[in-house]
UniProtKB/TrEMBL annotation:
The keyword Repeat does not apply. This is Long-chain-fatty-acid--CoA ligase. SUPFAM superfamilies: Acetyl-CoA synthetase-like (SSF56801). Residues 71-499 form the AMP-dependent synthetase/ligase domain. It catalyses: a long-chain fatty acid + ATP + CoA = a long-chain fatty acyl-CoA + AMP + diphosphate. It is an enzyme of class 6 (ligase). GO terms for molecular function: ATP binding; long-chain fatty acid-CoA ligase activity. Its EC number is 6.2.1.3. One of its GO terms (cellular component) is endoplasmic reticulum. It comes from Linnemannia elongata AG-77. CDD domains: LC-FACS_euk. Keywords: ATP-binding, Fatty acid metabolism, Ligase, Lipid metabolism, Nucleotide-binding.
Length: 692
């Protein structure tokens, strides 16, 4: 089970003396690591690369179960329980697949570059994902993850930009690559993670695999399956080619809201420093079990899996369907549950509806139990209570399998009330972390026994942080009572730069190695950082007030549980803000039913759409957003004056979200252009004109 090093909550970070410069604070470090940052795994200084790390785990934990998945029974059409492969078995597969992919590259495809070439990976998390990535680390290749939800244009760009000639992919992506083969001139081979040796049901009929292979041959692309490459490697084994610490292990493409994705070059040293840094806060063991469902194309998911691998624990992959995740969790019973606020908000909404908002005796007992545990938490007395846990909360814990010891949230802000509720409901450590792809998702994190919500904690053991003035937004390191500014990060966790992109690299990392995050924050008297704004995506209203819409969206999304997605729109020709809101069905439907006197079911898409168009419902939701804005201390001009409710969710498929779930603002503004125009016309028609 995870264990934690206990630190002083009242002095979480310190400013290193003599480091202040004009326009910036000094360098803040974790209070226990003020003299020197962690840049390796201190208990295993011989580990310099991911290859070293894997060999270390294989040696120590050879016969421990490692990777698990739920196989699908094609006859019964059901998923079974988790089946496991040990560290030793996975290592054998890594050696075989790595040898096979090297033989394919050199002998079959005739490529002259024998190592350091890029291998694409396109799938949700599964054992073959890890085997492919570790094969890259074993034979000194560069792994390049393609987002499972990326559109064709971005996949095309990355495959060409990273000079990818071989992609290892789940079978469902093969057709799209062959269909776009003319736009992928460098692609020479596709390896299917799923078997292509399907049975032909009727004599003389053509199987799907035969069609794919024939289609590939027509396009000049060879198509294999995973087992074929493993068998090829067993026939033609290769010696390992260990990488160097400063060499790039992976290109992790970050998709911005505008422009093409940028390939962050992440070195072996970055990964080792990140694991070492994480070990200084939370120590995972071989008894730990992780549910792996975060996209492995995102660095947060990859770092967490790597930490588990080093620790000798077990990683169980979900089936690939986020709607069935909690079923997988119930089957696996993990000890470690990393998540994102979007998912935790849904869990919170369901728990609240079934406890403190429940009718009758159940609701009354739940409200009393929650109030008692919340009071204890606020007083620093912990998250457990013998009586109320036995009566109520032990049952709630079963929603995550009953064994979860740690919940980790990151990638976006989470509301204070949600964080505190999860702490007392599950009776476990709930950590909130902060970081970015360029910094290995490792910058700051809250402490295990933290009881005050609403901040992102202190610098990690391997990072130092400073705040840099942003005068155009009126944020300065000299502000009172606390310094404010753009968050900059430095340490061995910071990436090498963007692949083939010197311009953006220089704009992101300064000559001293500081990474500019674009996030605005402040540091309080306990040494904890809080994000309050975003440097980009700023516009002016007609009167000249600056608006940071992402900041407003984060507050409204976190404080109003009716919101699943929100887009706040403003214009330099307009003096007010409007919003497009996609409601959260679980909470919106009962709320709207009460307003409209309806009885729409949560699963009734057409009924929900009608509720969204009900004027009384729209007014009521607008008032709820106003309450959320007041709770978030909005200034007058930051409140939205009109709201358009719709079930047309922002998604990667419709081009309104990036694969990392950031809103593509220009695309959303264009898609809802008519509705935005109508809202402003309504404001103009109903706003009294001042008399001269």
């Amino acid at each position: 089970m995870p264990s934690f090093i206990k630190y002083n909550l009242d002095k979480q970070s310190i400013e290193v003396p003599g480091t202040r410069t004009p326009g910036a604070t000094g360098h803040y470090r974790h209070a226990a690591y003020a003299d020197a940052l962690v840049n390796n795994i201190r208990e295993a200084p011989h580990i310099h690369t991911l290859y070293d790390m894997w060999q270390n785990s294989v040696t120590k934990y050879a016969d421990n179960d490692f990777l698990g998945h739920r196989p699908f029974n094609t006859v019964a059409q059901t998923y079974g329980g988790y089946t496991w492969e040990t560290y030793r078995q996975i290592n054998q597969r890594v050696n075989a697949f790595g040898s096979g992919i090297m033989h394919l590259n050199e002998v079959i495809l005739g490529n002259e570059q024998l190592n350091r070439w890029s291998l694409g990976i396109w799938s949700h998390g599964r054992p073959e994902w890890f085997i492919t990535e570790m094969s890259c680390n074993t034979y000194n290749l560069v792994s390049v993850a393609l987002y499972d939800t990326l559109g064709a244009d971005a996949v095309e760009y990355i495959v060409n930009h990273a000079d990818i000639q071989i992609v290892v992919s789940s079978a469902n992506h093969i057709a799209s690559m062959l269909e776009n083969a003319d736009k992928l001139p460098k692609l020479k081979a596709i390896v299917s993670m799923d078997s292509l040796h399907d049975t032909v049901p009727v004599p003389g009929a053509t199987s799907a695999s035969q069609v794919l292979r024939a289609w590939g041959a027509e396009k000049g692309i060879k198509v294999y399956d995973f087992n074929e490459i493993e068998n090829l490697g067993k026939e033609f084994p290769r010696k390992h080619i260990p990488p160097q610490a400063d060499e790039v292990a992976s290109l992790c493409y970050t998709s911005g809201t505008t422009g093409q994705p940028k390939g962050a070059m992440l070195t072996h040293k970055n990964f080792v420093a990140t694991v070492g840094t994480n070990r200084e806060g939370m120590i995972l063991t071989e008894d730990d079990v992780l549910i792996s469902f975060l996209p492995l194309a995102h660095i947060m998911g990859r770092v967490i899996d790597t930490c588990l691998m080093y620790s000798g624990g077990r990683i169980g992959y979900f089936r690939g369907d986020i709607l069935l995740l909690l079923e997988d969790v119930g089957e696996l019973r993990p000890t470690f549950f990393p998540a994102v606020p979007r998912l935790l908000n849904r869990i919170y909404a369901k728990l609240v509806a079934s406890t403190i908002e429940a009718p009758g005796l159940v609701g009354a007992l739940a409200r009393r139990g929650v109030a008692t545990k919340m009071a204890n938490l606020a007083a620093g007395k912990g998250v457990n209570h013998a009586l109320w846990d036995r009566l109520l909360f032990n049952k709630i814990k079963m929603a995550l399998g009953g064994r979860v010891q740690v919940i980790l949230t990151g990638s976006a802000p989470i509301a204070k009330e949600v964080l505190s509720f999860l702490r007392i409901a599950f009776g476990c450590v709930v950590l909130e972390g902060y970081g970015s792809t360029e910094g290995m998702a490792t910058a700051t994190i809250t402490m295990a026994d933290e009881y005050i919500p609403g901040h992102i904690g202190n610098p990690r053991a391997g990072c130092e942080v400073k705040l840099v003035d942003v005068p155009e937004m009126n944020y300065r390191s000299t502000d009172q009572p606390f310094p404010r500014g753009e968050i900059w990060i430095r340490g061995d966790t910071v990436f090498k730069g963007y692949f083939k992109d010197e311009k953006n690299t220089k704009e992101t990392i300064d000559p001293e190695g500081w990474l500019a995050t674009g996030d605005i924050g402040f540091i309080d008297n306990r040494g904890c950082f809080t994000i309050i704004d975003r440097k980009k995506n700023i516009f002016k209203l007609a009167q000249g007030e600056y608006i940071a819409p992402e900041k407003l969206e984060n507050v409204l999304g976190a404080r109003c549980n009716l919101v699943q997605q929100i887009y706040v729109h403003g214009d330099s020709l307009e003096s007010t803000l409007v919003a497009v809101v996609i409601p959260e069905p679980e909470t919106f439907v009962p709320f709207a039913n009460a307003i409209a006197g309806a009885s729409v079911a949560v699963t009734d898409a057409e009924g929900i759409s009608k509720l969204c168009k009900d004027p009384k419902v729209v007014v009521a939701v607008t008032k709820e957003l106003e309450k959320a804005g007041k709770a978030g201390a909005f200034r007058g001009f930051e409140f939205v004056k009109r709201v358009y409710l719709t079930t047309d969710a922002f998604s990667v498929d419709n081009g309104m979200m990036t694969p990392t779930f950031k809103v593509r603002r220009p695309q959303v503004a264009e898609y809802f252009g008519k509705q935005i125009k109508d809202m402003y016309e309504d404001i103009h028609n109903t706003t009294p004109v001042a008399k001269l």
